[in-house]
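Write out the 3D structure for:
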Amino acid sequence: MVCALGFIEHGRRFAQAALAGECEISRLSERQYDVILPDLIFNMEQHEASVENHYTRIQRQQLDKAIEDEFARKDTKDYIDVLLKENVYVFKDHFIGYDAHPALDDFFFGLANAELQSYRGYDTFNWLVQFGGVTMQKYMLVTAFFLSLALKHERFVSALLEKSPEIRLRDVLTITKEKSKLEENIVDGLNKWGPSFEGFTPLTPMEAKIILRVLSVRRDNNSILSSSMAPMPFLIEYSDTAWITSTAAVQIGAVDFLLNSLRYNFASDYDRNQQKREGSMQRALRRLLNEDLPGLTLVENVKIRCDGKTLTDIDFAAIDEDDGTVVLFQLKHQDHYGGDMRRRSSRGGRLKNEVDRWLSAVRSWVSKENTKDIKSALRLKKSFTCQRIFFVTITKHFAHFISSSDLRDDAAYATWIQLFDALNRMGHEERPNTLVGFFEILQQYMSHKMARGFELDELDNYHLPSLSFRIRHASAK
């Protein structure tokens, strides 16, 4: 059954890839299909992921070192190990049981909250925005609470296996919780740890119920899992009185599931809060440029007009008044598409179309307007002399779809982490620490220039009793 479902999902993803124009599908007979892939595939997506993973590893290493240093200073590690062994026991001959201890609860919540910061999507929304009347801060802190349960449970399992090695691992990895008890634990826990976070207000039982409905999968909302490659749920209702939690799912994609469920449950709130995210990118970009390229003139939210009509807007502009360089930024804080091929195609196509229109508009404006009007729009001094203008699109999560846009020599694109990488490279490569040098690095390391090409090693055939499909090179058609 599992193999058959996997086969169907594999074929479904090929169909979605064909709709996105990334492969072709031809029907050989009523029950046989050919899937035609390019001879050479450039994985630009993988390049962007590798840059992000590089900095995630650095962040994790720094976190691990900070925790290790704190352990060494306070002998915390030995104390935690002792508490784990003292409080765990064999339950009903085959299962795991353990007693609560405030020191363990505090330790693992702090660890989980720090760990959660490296998860994709953690900074998607300001913590003060609300969904269903509950702040994002409370959703994230409850997610950290569930992550702390998973981390603590795994450590308890390790301690139990040391004490009782005859216990089977498969019997002790699942966590079950009574509904009413879990709600009480969440309210008590967050009202204990929450005051250390700026802007926190006491969590009420009604808010806890709302959050649990968002974070869970039940009989009345299982359609949230209907999309292809939907984020894995980590809290599942399996009776009217109890939850089952997955230690693996909460560590793999807790934030992905939270964001997907917020969109599912509070669509209007989600759309409204989305509109505020580019403002956060503007503030963050200002902070980064001030730190790494001090002395620039930075301008936000410029409406550009031609012949009395508004063409488009410029989200952000950076100007080096000493050498006459202007960089105009378009900022895109889009949601990630995850593993959904259809959503990938839709969001990627929309991004490219928006960038194409923006590039066309700003280039038209620059070519038609005189220097005086450009300086006025960018709020520059009359004495400023413009020598060169560059155009840059910065996206939050994915940018490689822009590679087929009309970039020329004056445009570049990058994800947010690639922007950070470019600024970091300025301190390590022999490049001038200027706006021009920054643009040159962005352009050199665009995803389509850095991605490696892959060839299919072999041809594949997939068979079910009533259906089969073959994978072929384009040159083998």
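The longest strand covers residues 309-320.
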